[in-house]
Amino acid sequence: xxxxxxxxxxxxxxxxxxxxxxxxxxxxxxxxxxxxxxxxxxxxxxxxxxxxxxxxxxxxxxxxxxxxxxxxxxxxxxxxxxxxxxxxxxxxxxxxxxxxxxxxxxxxxxxxxxxxxxxxxxxxxxxxxxxxxxxxxxxxxxxxxxxxxxxxxxxxxxxxxxxxxxxxxxxxxxxxxxxxxxxxxxxxxxxxxxxxxxxxxxxxxxxxxxxxxxxxxxxxxxxxxxxxxxxxxxxxxxxxxxxxxxxxxxxxxxxxxxxxxxxxxxxxxxxxxxxxxxxxxxxxxx
Length: 286
What we know:
This protein is mainly beta. It contains three helices and 18 strands. A hairpin with an 8-residue loop joins strand 2 and strand 3.
């Protein structure tokens, strides 16, 4: 995983070297590489609606059918959950939470603090996502801060799409394209389905976990950033491997990944209420 920041720093102290997300010099170097990529300009993408967590990144999201009066939602990774990584096969719903999030405006200035009322959904099975329900509505956030939520695209993303990974934690962006899709992405005990593989320009780092992956052309969220192969190891933590439908394993050192989000809107109904029994909902169930 693109480890939560505290885990990254702890790993650096223990090992004394090596981990790409840990070193500030490496971070600066990688950011420069990303911003100098030949991907299309970022003029349609900014930080408005993204959030910083204590150790990860995230975004205020809405679905195509969400109403302004609905309680707002924040999306990040399953492995950013404050109570620890969900176990393989574990799905958490309606868990009490009072976690806070720093809300950013277009220029990456923190303009306010949002608070969760609960974890609506969290898992690291098939995907890597946590969705928090907030104590405020979209209309209240818009009225107070002048900021709108990011909309989740409800159709499958397309290979070749120009994208931007927007990190509220680091207040940095990473520009590249969708290189393709991975049948199964395996990391340690966890397996994710139909993951997004970035082209090499998106060198995401620790603390970018949970960042929204935004389609430059539409401004909609198509995935949530979550991991990358740091050391070239095979299917270990922080070194995911690709597994095809025939079971063949491919390791791509230095390549990073995200989990698609198009299947999430179909699991939320009127009032942004989670309904895992809804027709067409394919998210894992408890």
